[in-house]
Specification:
Elements lengths: L1 H17 L12 E4 L2 E5 L10 E4 L2 H9 L6 H18 L5 H16 L6 H15 L6 H31 L6 E5 L14 H10 L4 E6 L6 H13 L3 E4 L4 H6 L5 E4 L3 E3 L4 E4 L2 H10 L4 E4 L5 E2 L16 H4 E2 L2 E2 L12 E4 L6 E4 L2 E3 L3 H16 L1
Parallel strand pairs: 4-5, 4-7, 5-6, 7-10, 8-11, 10-15
Antiparallel strand pairs: 1-2, 2-3, 8-9, 9-14, 12-13, 15-16
Helix pairs in contact: 2-3, 3-4, 3-5, 3-6, 4-5, 5-6, 6-7
The protein binds 5-S-methyl-1-O-phosphono-5-thio-D-ribulose (MRU).
């Protein structure tokens, strides 16, 4: 009897944490936090293996972000928030001065893991605000407030994605053929997704759509992750090599391009996965609507243009090797920027949880910034 009860409890509990909120569809959660451990669905192993990486220290979180166990702007933001909490937990027994010094030092290490996605710094700033505003309070309260804030960041992300998806669904007609790049789905966020969230919502609302997925060299987020999500959800999709996009557009096989963002500047310039800029130029050439789908937390109002965004350069090995096999001559020089900048003038609109910003993007973004400032006053 005890064994049966335990079996039922264990399975129901596991089922619950695997189910995406409010739906019957089973999605593997990208991030779970339980009992002082952060569980990250190891995206390096997908689609072959479903395995969770356990992070129990902020150094584990640092490793997970750098190595792309977890990736995608909103997902690394939420992950870093739990990383701050884990650092606070680690240093909780130190005297006040040392505690704050060590936690802030850990925050800096986490913030430096990947420089382009602004959500990372945004989430860490939120955690630091909680830390600074609880200085007078006991250590246990600080810890519980930090955990609460990390949970809020994660929960809010799910709600925001759904709202963005609803807003974005308005521009998706029945029988639309959509091109997407990289992975912007439930794996790149806490759940649901940004650009892939719009695609998911369009499909779930009964629209007949077809998705073309760029494989997204060199890390193959499209082939490995987006394809995985689309197959799991049963959304009609076709995988293509990145260089097939122009041909498909010329053949009138693409009606709409939907991509995510890692940082949007005040003028609307957008950093996203390398190859996005090329797609935007093609979209202009073939007169295809090109939309960015991103939460307000991805907008960096503090900088004016894309030229000010730091673009992460990644290891040459990502280009010279495939699955551990060397495919280029040894000592070959490599240029491997992880992101590029799409200029505002190539963008038809930015879909956010607050609505769709249309050109002139700088004006729409300025209005949004004013609105957000008023809300915090
Ligand atoms: O290098 P990655 O895989 O972290 O890059 C991810 C992207 O470029 C996504 O398009 C972006 O983070 C938006 S995801 C919701």
């Amino acid at each position: 009897m005890v064994a049966i009860s335990f079996y039922l409890y264990y399975n129901i509990y596991n089922l619950e944490i695997e189910i995406g909120k409010g739906e019957n569809k089973i999605r593997h959660k990208s991030i779970k936090f339980d009992d002082s451990t952060l569980y990250l669905l190891d995206q390096r192993k997908l689609p072959g293996e479903i395995e969770y990486f356990k992070a129990s220290t902020f150094r584990d979180v640092e490793y997970a972000i750098i190595e792309m166990v977890v990736r995608g702007a909103p997902a690394i933001g939420a992950t870093a928030a739990y990383g701050v909490y884990l650092a606070a937990l680690e240093y909780k027994d130190l005297p006040d001065h040392d505690f704050y010094k060590q936690v802030l030092k850990s925050d800096k290490i986490l913030a430096d893991t990947r420089p382009t996605a602004v959500n990372l710094v945004w989430a860490i700033n939120r955690m630091e605000w909680v830390l600074e505003n609880n200085i007078e309070i006991g250590r246990e309260t600080i810890l519980s407030s930090l955990l609460e804030e990390a949970n809020n960041i994660a929960d809010e992300d799910i709600e925001i994605n759904r709202q963005m998806a609803k807003n974005g669904n308005e521009i998706v007609n029945n029988n639309t053929k959509i091109l997407t790049h990289c992975n912007t789905g439930s794996l790149a966020t806490v759940d649901y997704g940004t650009a892939l969230g719009v695609i998911r919502m369009a499909h779930q609302s009964g629209k007949n759509i077809r998705v073309y997925v760029d494989e997204t060299r060199p890390r193959l987020q499209g082939a490995r992750l987006t394809a995985f999500e689309l197959v799991e959800e049963g959304i009609p999709a076709v995988l293509i090599v990145d260089s097939a996009a122009a041909t498909l557009m010329r053949k009138k096989e693409i009606d709409l391009v939907l991509v995510g963002a890692d940082r949007i500047t005040a003028n609307g310039d957008t950093a996203n996965k390398i190859g996005t800029y090329m797609l935007s130029e093609l979209a202009v050439r073939f007169n295809i609507p090109f939309y960015i789908v991103a939460p307000v937390s991805t907008i960096d109002f503090s900088i004016n243009t894309g030229e000010e965004i730091e673009i992460e350069q990644r290891s040459s090995r990502e280009v010279t090797h495939i699955d551990g096999s060397e495919i280029a001559p040894r000592n070959m020089k490599v240029y491997n920027p992880a992101f590029d900048i799409t200029p505002a003038e190539n963008i038809t609109g930015i879909i956010t949880e607050e609505g769709i910003i249309k050109p002139p993007l700088a004006r729409g973004l300025a209005n949004l910034s004013t609105k957000k400032q008023k809300e915090t006053e």
